Each structure stands twice: as C-alpha cells, then as structure tokens.
Amino acid sequence: MSTLLIIILILILIGALPNWGYSRAWGYGPGGIVGVILIIVIILALLGRL
Q: Can you tell me where the transmembrane regions are (predicted)?
C-alpha cells in the first residue's frame, strides 16, 4: 500500500513541475507541496507507521 502511494506521489510531483506550457505560471508551489508530502510519506513508510 505504501509503495503504491509513493509511486502515485512521485507521478504527481513530476506532473506538477513547471516544465509544460500550462503550468509555467504556477511556479514551484505545487511541486514543493507535493515534494514535502512525498518526503513525509517516505519517512512514515520507513518508520513503519504507514
């Protein structure tokens, strides 16, 4: 379950990066938020709390 969640969050992180035309005006906010969530999920998975 946690592996699937981490994979989904990585895909969302890649999609939120401002590399495409529709997301250039967003800046790094969405990618940063998803990145923080991804780090928290990875830490929880490593600690066995997820």
A: 28-47
